[in-house]
C-alpha cells in the first residue's frame, strides 16, 4: 500500500510538471501572437489528454510492479502435483449411450471435517432414465454430483461405471461423458457463441439449436438484429458494446452449454432457479426433447419439477432415505418427500387464497 501511494504521488508530480511546462510554453507563444485562441484551446486539450495518459501508464506499470511478486505464488499453486489417481482405462463415448453408474456403500467427508457429508449411499443410475435428487439444504445433493464427476473421491465405498471403479478410467476421458450445470456456473466476457461452446471454434448451427432448445431463441433474434448474432459480446467488462443479460438468460445459456457438449450424462443442479415461472414451465415441458435419450440427473428444491423424472432420490443429513416415483413417494405420508411436497403445495395454496 505504501509503495502504491508513493508511485501515485510520483506519477501525479510528473504529470503536473509536464502540464505546467507545456502550459507555460503555450502561454508564452500565445502572448507573442504565435497562437490564436483556437490553437490555444487545441493544445491545452492535447496537453490535458497527454497528462492523463502519462498518469494512467505510470499507474499500470506500478500495478504490474506490485503484483509481479505474487505471480510466482500463483504459478507454484498451478504447478502443484495432483494426488488424484488418474487411471489408465479408456472411456469410450458410445453412440448408444449404454452406460450404467452405481454408488456402492459410498461415504464422504470433506478434508478437515469430522462429519460425513454422505453416509453409506447405494444408488444406481440407469441408462436413458431421469433421476431427481431432492432434500433440504446441506443434505448432500451437490456432494453426490461432485463425487460422480470425480471432483472428489469417496472416503469409503466405490462408484462404478459399467461395473468398473471410476478411478480406473483416465480422468479426462471419464469427465467427458458428463455435461454439468452447477449452481455457481460462470459466463465469461466473451461472445455468446464462445460461451456456449466453451471454445473459440464452434459449430454455429449446433450452438443455435442448443440455445433455441433452452428458450433463448427470442433473445438470440434480438442479437441477430444487432448484426452480430453469436458474435455478440456478453457483459461490458472491457467493451461498452457488450450486452447485459439477466440471471434467467444466463441460466438458459448455461443449459445450452451443457446441451452443446452432447455428453451421455446431463447433470442439472438447480438449473431454473433464476427463471420466471413461465420460462421454467417451458423448460420442464420440453425436458424430454431437450435431453433426448441421454441419462439425466436433476437437483432441485422445487418438487413440482420432479414429476417428469423416472426415479426420485430423497436425501436427509447425508443419507439416502427414500427412492421411488413421485406417485409412490407422495403415497408414503410418513416419508420426507411427502412432508416436503405438502409444505411447498401449502405455500402455493396460501398464495392463491
Descriptors:
single chain, 353 residues, alpha/beta, Rossmann fold, 3 domains, 6-stranded mixed beta sheet, 4-stranded antiparallel beta sheet, 12 helices, elongated
The strands making up the biggest β-sheet line up spatially as: 6-7-8-3-9-10
What would you call the shape? elongated
* CATH homology group of the largest domain: P-loop containing nucleotide triphosphate hydrolases
- CA distance, first residue to last residue: 59 Å
The tally of structural domains comes to: 3
CA-atom Rg in angstroms: 29 Å
Average pLDDT number: 82
Order of helices and strands: HHEEEHEEHEHHHHEHHEEEHH
Q: Biggest sheet, open or closed, and with what strands and sense? A: 6 strands, mixed
CATH fold label of the largest domain: Rossmann fold
Low confidence ranges: none
Q: Tell me the CATH architecture of the largest domain.
A: 3-Layer(aba) Sandwich
The level-1 CATH class of the largest domain: Alpha Beta
Please give the count of helices: 12
Amount of helix = 40-55%
Structural class: alpha/beta
Beta-sheet strand percentage? Answer: 15-25%
How many distinct beta strands?
10
Amino acid at each position: 500500500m505504501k509503495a502504491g501511494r508513493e508511485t501515485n504521488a510520483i506519477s501525479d508530480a510528473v504529470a503536473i510538471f509536464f502540464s505546467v511546462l507545456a502550459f507555460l510554453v503555450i502561454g508564452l507563444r500565445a502572448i507573442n501572437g504565435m497562437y490564436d485562441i483556437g490553437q490555444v484551446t487545441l493544445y491545452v486539450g492535447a496537453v490535458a489528454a497527454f497528462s492523463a495518459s502519462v498518469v494512467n501508464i505510470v499507474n499500470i506499470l506500478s500495478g504490474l510492479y506490485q503484483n509481479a511478486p505474487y505471480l510466482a505464488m500463483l504459478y507454484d499453486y498451478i504447478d502443484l502435483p495432483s494426488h488424484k489417481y488418474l487411471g489408465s482405462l479408456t472411456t469410450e463415448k458410445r453412440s448408444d449411450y449404454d452406460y450404467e453408474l452405481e454408488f456402492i456403500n459410498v461415504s464422504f467427508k470433506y478434508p478437515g471435517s469430522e462429519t460425513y457429508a454422505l453416509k453409506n449411499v447405494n444408488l444406481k443410475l440407469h441408462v436413458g432414465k431421469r433421476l431427481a435428487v431432492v432434500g433440504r439444504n446441506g443434505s448432500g445433493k451437490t456432494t453426490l454430483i461432485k463425487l460422480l464427476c470425480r471432483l472428489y473421491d469417496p472416503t469409503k465405498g466405490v462408484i462404478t461405471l459399467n461395473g468398473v471403479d471410476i478411478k480406473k478410467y483416465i480422468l479426462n476421458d471419464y469427465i467427458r461423458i458428463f455435461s454439468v450445470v452447477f449452481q455457481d456456473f460462470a459466463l465469461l466476457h466473451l461472445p455468446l457463441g464462445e460461451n456456449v461452446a466453451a471454445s473459440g471454434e464452434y459449430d454455429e448451427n449446433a450452438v443455435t439449436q442448443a440455445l433455441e432448445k433452452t428458450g433463448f431463441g427470442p433473445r438470440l433474434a434480438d442479437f441477430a438484429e444487432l448484426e452480430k448474432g453469436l458474435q455478440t459480446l456478453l457483459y461490458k467488462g472491457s467493451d461498452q458494446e457488450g450486452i447485459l443479460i439477466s440471471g434467467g438468460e444466463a441460466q438458459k445459456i448455461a443449459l445450452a452449454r451443457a446441451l452443446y457438449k452432447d455428453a451421455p450424462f446431463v447433470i442439472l443442479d438447480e438449473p431454473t432457479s433464476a427463471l420466471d415461472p413461465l420460462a421454467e414451465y417451458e423448460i420442464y415441458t420440453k425436458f424430454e426433447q431437450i435431453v433426448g435419450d441421454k441419462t439425466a440427473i436433476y437437483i432441485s428444491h422445487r418438487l413440482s419439477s420432479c414429476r417428469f423424472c423416472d426415479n426420485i432420490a430423497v436425501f436427509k443429513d447425508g443419507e439416502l432415505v427414500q427412492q421411488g416415483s413421485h406417485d409412490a413417494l407422495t403415497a408414503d405420508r410418513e416419508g420426507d418427500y411427502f412432508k416436503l411436497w405438502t409444505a411447498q403445495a401449502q405455500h402455493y395454496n396460501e398464495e392463491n387464497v
